[in-house]
C-alpha cells in the first residue's frame, strides 16, 4: 500500500496536510528526519503512516502521558494495536507491555517516556524488540539550548548504538540553533530538516496591555463563544482566576499539578466534553490533549519564551476554524521576567550547597546514596534550612541538567510492598484475620521480586484477587505490617529525587560554569524576545513569531490586532485623502499625529500605497 492508501484506509482522509507526505517519504527511504510542524499540523500521522507500512513496531519516546493514552486509544479505535509504558504502572504491567510489544506481530507502536530508556527492564528487551523506527516526539526537549530541556532525552542518542533504525523526530517549536542541536544529539549522519510554514491563518494573535487583567479577561470570555484555556503563572492564580470567572457568570474550573490524579482526570474530561467551558491552568495542562475546537487561549501575563507561548497558543483552533490567542499583560510582567531570571539562575555556590543539603535531608553520608530514591517535600525542606522554594526548585533542575539527580515533581507513587518475613516461615504464621493470609498468598503469586525489594502493586487487581474492597485491602496490608510480615508503603502524591551517584565531597560537584553562563544568556534573550513581542506596535504578530523561528519570508496575517489596526488606519487615511486631495505632506503628517484620528503604523508607506492605487 502507498502512504495515501494507508491514510485513506485508517484515517479516512483523501489527502495529506502540507509537508506530511514529504516527511513520510523521507522516513520510508530510511533517512533520519527532523520534522517541524506547527501545533495542530498533524505530527502523529508523520510517523504512524510509515510505521504501518513496515514490519515491526515504532518505538515512540514522548514525555506526555496524556498523549500516550490518547494515541493508544485512538489507534485502537482504528484497529491498530499499540501499547504504552508510563508512570503509574506496576513492574508486572510494564513487563507484560514489553512482552506484548516484543512477541505480538500485530503490535505496531510502543509508547514510553524517556526515563524508561535507562531502566534494566527496557534494556533486557531492547535487543528483542522489532523496532522499525525510533520516534522522538517533543524533540526540542533533547537540546540543552532549547526552552524545555529534559536530560533523560539524551538517552535516545545512546539507544542508537544498539538499535539500527531510522529516527523520526518531531517538534512544533525549534529555532535554527535548536534544530541543529537536535540533529546532532540524535546522531543524524547528515542534516535532514523538513518543515512547513508555521503560519496559522485561522488563528488571530491579539495583545492587550491592561492594568485590570481580570476585567480584560472577562471581556475576552464574554466576547468569544466556545471552549477556552486561560494560562496563569501559578497554582494560587489558577484558583483565584477561576473563582473570579465563576462569580461573573462564566463556566470555569482550574487545573494544576497539585490536584489529585482523580480530580485532574475528572476536570480534564469535563472540559473536553464541554461540561466546563473555560479551564484556568498552569502549563501542566494541555500537552497532548486532543481537543480540536478550542476557540481561544488566553495568557494572563508574559510567558518566559516565544517557544512556550507559540506552543500553548497553538492549542487554539486545531479544527481550522477562526480562533484567538490573546496575551494580556502590563508593565509588572516585565519586572517579573527579570525576577524570574534571578530566581532561575541562583549562583553555582548556592546550587552546590543545595546538593549537599539534599543528602543531609535524606541522612545520606559521603560516598553513599547511589541509586537511592528520596521522597522530597519541598516546603518541609525549605523550612528546615530557611530557604526560598523557587531558588531551591531551579537549583534542583540545574543539578538534574548536569546529571547528578533526576527531580520528578508531583509524581503519583504506587503502593509498594516488600515481604520481610522469611519465605520458609510464612506458612507457620497465624493471623488474627484469615483474609491476611489470602492477601499474602496473592502478593507472592502476583509480584516477582517482592522478597528482595519494595514492588509497586495495583491495589484494584490485588483486592479483586482476594475478593475484598480496596479500603479493606489497605487495612489488611496495614495489619500485615504491624505483624512485621511486610513493609507497607502506601500510595502517595509527592516529588521524588533519584540520586545518580554516591554523595560527592564539597568542591567535587561538577556544574559547568561556561554552560551555566550560556544558558542564562539564552534565557535572557528569550525573555527579551517575548517582551518585545508584547510591546510590538508595527509588525504583524504572526510575522514576528515566524521570524523568531527562522522563517523570514512570511506575509502579514491580516488577522492580528496590529494588522487590523493597520487596515483601519489605512482606511481612515484613505478617507482623509479623498476629502483633501491637495493635502501637503505636512498636513498629512499633522492629521496622522492627532490621537483622535487613531492612525497607526507606517504613515508614509500607507500614503504611498493609497496614492499609487
List the helices and strands and how they pair.
Layout: H1 3-11, H2 20-28, E1 33-36, H3 43-52, E2 57-61, H4 65-77, E3 81-85, H5 91-103, E4 107-112, H6 120-126, E5 131-136, H7 155-159, E6 167-171, H8 176-185, E7 193-195, E8 203-209, H9 213-223, E9 227-231, H10 235-247, E10 252-255, H11 261-273, E11 278-281, E12 294-300, H12 306-313, E13 323-329, H13 331-344, H14 348-361, E14 373-376, H15 378-385, H16 389-401, E15 405-413, E16 415-419, H17 434-446, E17 455-457, H18 459-466, H19 470-482, E18 486-489, E19 492-499, H20 513-535, H21 541-548, H22 561-579, H23 585-593, H24 603-612
Parallel strand pairs: 1-6, 1-7, 2-4, 2-5, 3-4, 5-6, 8-13, 9-11, 9-12, 10-11, 12-13
Antiparallel strand pairs: 14-19, 15-19, 16-17, 16-18
Helix pairs in contact: 2-3, 13-20, 14-16, 17-18, 17-19, 18-19
Q: What is the level-2 CATH architecture name of the largest domain?
A: 3-Layer(aba) Sandwich
Strand content: 15-25%
Multimerization state = single chain
The CATH homologous superfamily of the largest domain corresponds to P-loop containing nucleotide triphosphate hydrolases
* Strand arrangement in the largest pleated sheet: 3-4-2-5-6-1-7
Please give the share of residues in helix: 40-55%
Counting structural domains, the number is: 5
Secondary structure tally: strands: 19
CATH class of the largest domain: Alpha Beta
Main beta-sheet strand count, sense and barrel state: 7 strands, parallel
> Low-confidence spans: pLDDT under 50, at least 5 residues?
none
Shape estimate? globular
Query: Compute the gyration radius: what is it?
Result: 28 Å
Give the class from helix and strand content and strand pairing. Answer: alpha/beta
Cα end-to-end separation = 53 Å
Mean pLDDT: 88
CATH topology of the largest domain: Rossmann fold
Q: Note the total helix count.
A: 24
Amino acid at each position: 500500500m502507498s502512504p495515501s492508501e494507508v491514510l485513506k484506509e485508517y484515517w479516512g482522509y483523501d489527502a495529506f496536510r502540507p509537508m506530511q507526505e514529504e516527511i513520510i517519504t523521507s522516513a520510508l527511504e530510511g533517512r533520519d528526519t527532523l520534522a517541524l510542524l506547527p501545533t495542530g499540523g498533524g505530527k502523529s500521522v508523520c510517523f504512524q503512516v510509515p510505521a504501518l507500512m513496515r514490519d515491526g513496531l515504532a518505538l515512540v519516546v514522548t514525555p506526555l502521558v496524556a498523549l500516550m493514552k490518547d494515541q493508544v486509544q485512538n489507534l485502537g479505535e482504528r484497529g491498530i494495536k499499540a501499547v504504552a509504558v508510563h508512570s503509574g504502572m506496576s513492574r508486572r504491567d510494564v513487563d507484560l507491555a514489553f512482552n506484548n510489544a516484543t512477541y505480538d506481530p500485530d503490535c505496531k507502536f510502543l509508547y514510553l517516556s524517556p526515563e524508561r530508556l535507562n531502566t534494566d527492564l527496557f534494556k533486557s528487551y531492547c535487543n528483542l524488540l522489532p523496532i522499525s523506527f525510533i520516534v522522538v516526539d517533543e524533540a526540542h526537549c533533547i537540546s540543552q539550548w532549547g526552552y524545555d530541556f529534559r536530560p533523560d532525552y539524551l538517552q535516545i542518542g545512546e539507544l542508537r548504538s544498539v538499535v539500527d533504525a531510522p529516527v523520526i523526530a518531531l517538534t512544533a517549536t525549534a529555532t535554527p540553533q535548536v534544530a541543529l542541536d537536535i540533529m546532532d544529539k540524535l546522531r543524524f549522519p547528515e542534516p535532514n530538516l523538513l518543515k512547513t510554514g508555521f503560519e496559522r491563518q485561522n488563528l488571530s494573535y491579539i495583545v492587550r496591555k491592561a492594568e485590570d487583567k481580570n476585567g480584560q479577561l472577562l471581556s475576552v470570555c464574554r466576547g468569544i463563544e466556545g471552549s477556552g484555556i486561560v494560562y496563569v503563572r501559578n497554582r494560587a492564580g489558577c484558583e483565584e482566576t477561576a473563582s473570579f470567572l465563576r462569580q461573573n457568570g462564566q463556566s470555569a474550573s482550574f487545573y494544576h499539578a497539585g490536584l489529585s490524579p482523580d480530580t485532574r482526570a475528572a476536570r480534564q474530561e469535563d472540559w473536553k466534553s464541554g461540561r466546563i467551558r473555560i479551564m484556568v491552568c498552569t502549563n501542566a495542562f494541555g500537552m497532548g490533549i486532543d481537543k480540536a475546537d478550542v476557540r481561544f487561549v488566553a495568557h494572563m501575563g508574559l510567558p518566559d519564551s516565544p517557544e512556550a507561548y507559540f506552543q500553548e497558543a497553538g492549542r487554539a483552533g486545531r479544527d481550522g476554524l477562526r480562533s484567538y490567542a490573546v496575551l494580556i499583560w502590563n508593565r509588572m510582567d516585565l519586572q517579573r521576567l527579570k525576577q524570574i531570571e534571578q530566581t532561575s539562575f541562583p549562583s553555582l555556590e548556592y546550587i552546590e550547597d543545595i546538593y549537599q543539603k539534599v543528602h543531609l535531608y535524606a541522612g545520606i553520608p559521603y560516598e553513599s546514596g547511589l541509586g537511592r530514591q528520596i521522597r522530597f517535600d519541598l516546603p518541609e525542606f525549605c523550612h528546615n534550612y530557611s530557604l526560598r522554594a523557587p531558588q531551591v526548585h531551579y537549583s534542583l533542575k540545574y543539578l538534574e541538567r548536569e546529571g547528578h539527580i533526576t527531580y520528578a515533581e508531583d509524581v503519583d507513587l504506587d503502593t509498594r510492598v516488600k515481604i520481610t518475613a522469611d519465605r520458609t516461615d510464612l506458612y507457620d504464621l497465624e493471623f488474627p484475620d484469615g483474609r491476611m493470609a489470602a492477601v499474602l498468598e496473592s502478593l507472592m503469586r502476583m509480584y516477582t521480586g517482592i522478597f528482595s525489594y519494595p514492588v509497586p502493586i495495583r491495589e484494584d487487581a490485588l483486592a479483586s484477587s482476594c475478593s475484598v474492597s480496596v479500603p479493606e485491602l489497605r487495612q489488611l496490608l496495614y495489619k500485615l505490617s504491624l505483624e512485621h510480615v511486610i513493609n507497607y508503603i502506601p500510595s502517595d502524591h509527592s516529588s521524588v529525587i533519584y540520586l545518580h551517584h554516591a554523595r560527592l565531597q564539597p568542591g567535587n560537584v561538577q556544574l559547568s560554569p561556561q554552560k551555566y553562563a550560556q544558558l542564562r544568556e539564552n534565557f535572557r534573550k528569550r525573555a527579551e524576545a517575548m517582551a518585545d513581542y508584547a510591546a510590538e506596535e508595527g509588525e504583524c504578530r504572526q510575522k514576528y513569531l515566524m521570524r523568531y523561528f527562522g522563517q523570514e519570508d512570511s506575509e502579514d496575517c491580516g488577522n492580528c490586532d496590529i494588522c487590523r489596526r493597520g487596515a483601519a488606519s489605512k482606511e481612515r487615511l484613505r478617507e482623509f485623502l479623498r476629502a483633501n486631495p491637495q493635502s501637503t505632506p505636512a498636513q498629512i503628517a499633522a492629521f496622522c499625529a492627532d490621537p483622535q484620528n487613531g492612525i497607526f503604523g507606517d504613515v508614509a508607506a500607507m500614503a504611498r500605497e493609497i496614492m499609487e492605487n
